[in-house]
Amino acid sequence: MCHNFKKQLYLFETCYIFKDVNKKFVGRHYDIVIAGGGMVGTSLACTLGKNAKLKEKKVLLLEASASKPFNIGGKYSNRVVSINKSSKELLERIDSWKHIEQSRFATVKQLQVSDALSDAFITFGENDDISYIVENDLIVKAVSVEVKKCENVNVLYNAKVSEYILPDYENNIVGIKLDNGDSYTCDLLM
Ligand SMILES: Cc1cc2nc3c(=O)[nH]c(=O)nc-3n(C[C@H](O)[C@H](O)[C@H](O)COP(=O)(O)OP(=O)(O)OC[C@H]3O[C@@H](n4cnc5c(N)ncnc54)[C@H](O)[C@@H]3O)c2cc1C
């Protein structure tokens, strides 16, 4: 605690761009801060939060937009991703795939690439799944449900990062400022 406070004080005394917020700074240090709580950021936060070896690490996920209810069902969203088997396995490891499975997705069983100037073509996936098409909102929903169960992960909505300062040779922590004036420091910004 004392060590962190000294590090924070040092950063905010020496970094020019944070001079103005120095007085307002309330001293919040995290081991890891993730900027952006979309599909990738939330999955990352969840993966860190569910890793037993990292359970002592404090993680902060900052998402610019408001927390929104996910209404999956009815009309399909046009924002989808094709995730490969490794990504599916990652989602399984962080207990999120089951939420997708219980909802909806489509499996790509075969892929054929044809040449425009000849009859040549190549086919992938004779016996195995190639990928899974999942709506972006559904992935975010699935990982958001699980990240909330991680005690060492704090998720902040309406938290838009407006400035940050990366470590240099003199100090080794990162300073982050939100557009609402709140400030944080961390050892690793992702
Ligand atoms: C209409 C549409 C259709 C698509 N279709 C396909 C498809 O068919 N197949 C495919 O593979 N991919 C598709 N994509 C792309 C796919 O959605 C993206 O690759 C994927 O969403 C990237 O995820 P991400 O988490 O990196 O970024 P995003 O989903 O963009 O998430 C970034 C998050 O960061 C937040 N943020 C931004 N700035 C800040 C800040 N300063 N501070 C804090 N938070 C911030 C945003 O609010 C957002 O929640 C499509 C995209 C769109 C828009």
UniProtKB/TrEMBL annotation:
Task: Tell me the InterPro entries matching this sequence.
Answer: FAD/NAD-bd_sf, UbiH/COQ6_monooxygenase
Q: Which GO cellular component term is one of those annotated? A: mitochondrion
What is this protein called in UniProt?
Ubiquinone biosynthesis monooxygenase COQ6
